[in-house]
Design a protein that fits this description.
elongated; DNA polymerase, domain 1; 43% helix; Arc Repressor Mutant, subunit A; Rossmann fold; nine-stranded mixed beta sheet; three-stranded antiparallel beta sheet; 3 domains; 12 strands; alpha/beta; 17 helices
Length: 362
Amino acid sequence: MKRKFWIAFSSIEQVDSLFIQKLYNYFGDIEKAFNCSLNDLKNIEGLSVKKAEKFLNLRDKVDIDRTFTEVETRGINFLTLEDENYPKMLKNIENPPAVLYYKGKLFDCNLEKTLAVVGSRKASYNGREDLKKVLSGLANTDICIVSGLASGIDTVAHTSAIENNLKTIGVIASGFDFTYPASNKGLYQNIENGYGAVVTEYYPTFEPLKFRFPQRNRIVSGLSYGTLVTEASLKSGALITANLTLEQGRELMCIPGLISNPNTQGIYKLLKNGATLVTESDDILNALGWEIKKDSSGEQLTLPMMTPEEEKIYQVLEVEEKGFDEMVMLTKLSVEHLLMNLTTLELKGIIKQCPGDRYKRV
């Protein structure tokens, strides 16, 4: 069974996918590539003797059957570059993962309509809300949201996908023995248990080391037909992913933000250089040339019955969130009546409270 040799290669931390592909392409057989000799490796153009010797030393320490069993006993699925169902968009990038490990239902996701969403880990409230608004316009369709399962915009992207009945793929920068950040443990589980898939190129025991995050970004953009950037400073992982998107010949899109926010400096740089401006979901569909197919089983929002006073408050919140004092002035309701109606509307799930004693429609 040749598949175990892909896993054996992948289990060597000091070996990357480019090296594995170099040997595989030379020998044309993954088992022969793994079991090669120093004389064989000397014939490969661009491979130094020092690197060849280092690989052979590491290879001789690998227990092929044990490494394969450890993947299987953890309930981890995987694809190799030899597999016919390896995602075609990812396979077309310059350096696709030699092995793609995954948990969840990867093939329940529509890999023909994948949208990457990236942005700042320290996203502003406005940035988060803007992204939620844009993604809500894609609700109940067959579009799949791809992101990196990090804090900030990544988390908003995955949770918004789930809330809007969209499939989502989380690409992580470690093996499955680690959950990073730990605060996203529940999100990992939700995705794995029916909302999509979590994928990685790393063997289960590999830690989430700093250098692996930029490597992970090429998979986020590589799986996707286009990338949507929401808040990115001039030196950020999101900007790295944006550049990878362009290198891979994919569509780059940006949600604008407040010009006073340092996290939008990268956004406006990308927009000035030709990225597509996105303020609503239709902008994404037009940029990618997609026609969306609504899922009739998706829940449609129906508002509960509202009293005249509740209707008045609801209308006041039509355009944007409002503060309590502002609503007193606009609705002409007493403080007591306004508080009572706000509580009722929250319980009905029609509005929600925001930071700073402000309210908005759900």
